[in-house]
Task: inverse folding
């Protein structure tokens, strides 16, 4: 069947140079590229080599220069503080140029890193764009991470400056960020030259003389900076994401490919155009926030909503409908967990009836598997297309989607629809050969990946190869298992590594195990992601204590839970653990996490033939039953 999607898709695979080259004409370049796709150093493919551009110019100044200076660029809607404030493209340009001046005055130049540890406030967006303006590389760290996680990122990125705020606000709780930042700097071996702190009225941060500077004071004396040309292949940002160990992976994003791909997706995938209001209800600390709160909508000239609140509790389950109707949102993008939270509080969607949602065209969901119940509930309540799409921090944009701006396909529940243009997907068996439609295997993408995807990991080319390219030569391994049906619909079933998805947040059970194993009384442990009605998955810990430990297990469980909260952060949502006599293992010593997870989730499982002692599974079932999991709960 011929349609705009098949036309785009086929060209993107057969002739990526022509496809992306034509799309790139829609962006502003100081100097055009020499090559669209540079394959001179395989497997490190690069896009638009030789080209020079500026991400901030394309996101902000270009629209002012094109007469859209008075159009709203950002609507900051903060139910937790009661503030709603709009910034036009001209106002945004002014703030960003000034903050670029502040960064320069603290010695930040092209290529230097700047860490942002910020709540969802406009200053966070100004700071990201200011880095892009002067060619500095930002690395945003999600506010829900603890000081140790921040310290790990400071050590890896070695920032010249850190930008933060006195606090974040979680529903009705004020979370002071500055003590966490101070602790992280104490813990890290690399010290920043300066910290710039936004003082919020809800908490006042104490400042360290000679290192900490107040945002407002610095802005008042700043000399605005203009955009500087950077290479298309220069890094725009590093975003750390969970890997299989406690050492997160620094996903690198370049300037040129990122700009071209994201601007394209705003129309092709999300069906919006300049002047439309677009809302990604996520956090700037995650990739969704980078791509679709900040860069994508601003490249396209859309108005983006910066929402400092939650789907429920700020103040109630009607907040999303209020924001959509008040600001005339056309497309909303969030995680299924947000809709499960709303559905739980307002199962009949009665609160929705108080709002005029006639402006609203599409709901996009991603970040975790979209369960059919949530899909049907959202479709019935909203009466607009509800479109699942699949992507990862590494990819920066959707691998598979229902590209509504090209051709909207029939929704098949459980599938994010088809490979997006540029994505040559395959399903491989463990022998590395493609398997039949409908059969589950490793979901992989044939190289080269399209523009906007990770060119490498920060200063770690080898880890990039080892993590993504080694297992299936010639392909990028997504670490998701799934299948593609006869019609080309993709189904993403589960991760093949120890990454879990908690309320749409990506976490590593391996990293949690490392923290738990550090407790002096713990001999060994296993953390698994078990099913949760609201968050999709939550972590559950099983621990074996050292011989001779005679303290109460309940006390140790409490300490371990606090330890994970303290070292990884509240976002890990690690709240359940239990002490067991032993863990089930194969004869070669591998802990049977999958089997324990099936027991906890009351799923059928095959007793592995290699298990060293069958009786352990009964013990595990008993222990899980006592904490409310499995058939014996
Ligand atoms: N700073 C500090 N703490 C934070 C934080 C931040 N930026 N974000 C979350 N936390 C804390 C929360 O306060 C909570 O702490 P608690 O254990 O003391 O209650 C913990 O981290 C877990 O937070 P969260 O995952 O948000 O769970 P929740 O129970 O507060 O809310 C949902 C549940 C479903 C409402 C919420 O997860 C949500 O809105 N999810 C939307 C999905 C999303 O944005 N995904 C991003 C990718 S698209
Ligand atoms: P993150 O890097 O945080 O975006 O998480 C990426 C992971 O989330 C993917 O590898 C998948 O396991 C999961 N994921 C994201 N979107 C979807 C989706 N639409 N369906 C199923 N899983 C998804």
Result:
């Amino acid at each position: 069947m011929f349609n705009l999607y098949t036309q785009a898709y086929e060209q993107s695979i057969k002739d990526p140079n022509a496809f992306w080259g034509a799309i790139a004409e829609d962006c502003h370049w100081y100097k055009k590229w020499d090559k669209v796709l540079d394959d001179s150093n395989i497997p490190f493919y690069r896009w638009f080599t030789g080209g020079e551009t500026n991400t901030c110019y394309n996101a902000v100044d270009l629209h002012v220069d094109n007469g859209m200076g008075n159009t709203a660029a950002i609507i900051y809607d903060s139910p937790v503080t009661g503030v709603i404030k709009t910034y036009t493209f001209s106002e945004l340009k002014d703030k960003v140029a000034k903050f670029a001046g502040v960064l320069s005055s603290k010695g930040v130049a092209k290529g230097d890193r700047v860490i942002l540890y910020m709540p969802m406030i406009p200053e966070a967006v100004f700071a990201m764009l200011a880095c892009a303006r002067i060619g500095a590389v930002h690395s945003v760290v999600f506010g829900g991470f603890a000081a140790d996680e921040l310290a790990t990122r400071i050590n890896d990125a070695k920032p010249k400056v850190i930008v933060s705020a006195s606090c974040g606000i979680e529903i009705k709780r004020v979370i002071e960020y500055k003590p966490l930042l101070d602790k992280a700097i104490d813990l890290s071996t690399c010290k920043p030259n300066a910290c710039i702190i936004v003082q919020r009225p809800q908490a006042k941060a104490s400042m360290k003389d000679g290192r900490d500077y107040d945002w407002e004071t610095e802005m008042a004396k700043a000399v605005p900076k203009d955009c500087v040309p950077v290479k298309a292949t220069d890094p725009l940002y590093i975003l750390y994401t969970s890997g299989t160990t406690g050492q997160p992976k620094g996903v690198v994003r370049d300037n040129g490919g990122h700009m071209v791909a994201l601007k394209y997706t705003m129309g092709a995938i999300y069906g919006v155009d300049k002047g439309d209001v677009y809302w990604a209800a996520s956090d700037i600390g995650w990739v969704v926030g980078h791509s679709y709160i900040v860069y994508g909508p601003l490249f396209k000239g859309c108005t983006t909503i910066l929402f400092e609140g939650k789907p429920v509790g700020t103040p109630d389950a009607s907040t999303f409908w209020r924001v959509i109707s008040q600001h005339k949102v056309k497309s909303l993008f969030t995680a299924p967990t947000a809709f499960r939270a709303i559905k739980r509080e307002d199962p009949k969607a009665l609160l929705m009836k108080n709002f005029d949602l006639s402006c609203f065209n599409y709901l996009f969901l991603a970040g975790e598997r979209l369960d059919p119940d949530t899909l049907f509930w959202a479709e019935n309540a909203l009466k607009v297309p509800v479109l699942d799409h699949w992507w990862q921090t590494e990819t920066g944009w959707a691998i598979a989607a229902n590209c509504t701006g090209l051709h909207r396909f029939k929704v098949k529940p459980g599938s994010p629809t088809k490979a997006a243009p540029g994505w040559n997907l395959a399903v491989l068996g463990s022998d590395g050969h493609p398997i039949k439609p409908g059969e589950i295997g490793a979901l992989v993408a044939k190289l080269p990946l399209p523009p906007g995807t990770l060119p490498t990991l920060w200063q770690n080319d080898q880890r990039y190869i080892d993590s993504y390219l080694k297992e299936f030569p010639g392909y990028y391994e997504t670490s998701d298992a799934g299948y593609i049906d006869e019609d080309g619909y993709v189904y993403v079933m589960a991760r093949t590594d120890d990454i879990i998805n908690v309320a749409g947040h990506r976490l590593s059970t391996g990293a949690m195990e490392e923290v738990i194993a550090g407790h002096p009384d713990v001999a060994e442990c296993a953390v698994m992601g078990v099913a949760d009605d609201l968050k999709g998955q939550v972590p559950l810990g099983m621990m074996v204590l050292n011989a001779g430990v005679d303290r109460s297990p309940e006390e140790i469980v409490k300490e371990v839970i606090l330890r994970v909260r303290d070292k990884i952060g509240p976002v890990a949502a690690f709240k359940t653990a239990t002490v067991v006599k032993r863990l089930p293992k194969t004869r070669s010593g591998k802990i049977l996490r999958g089997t324990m997870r099936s027991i906890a989730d009351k799923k059928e499982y095959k007793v592995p033939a290699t298990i060293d002692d069958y009786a352990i599974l009964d013990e595990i079932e008993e222990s899980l039953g006592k904490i409310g999991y499995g058939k014996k709960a």
In short: The first strand starts at residue 35 and ends at 38. The domain at 4-309+389-424 is CATH 3.40.50.12780 (Rossmann fold).
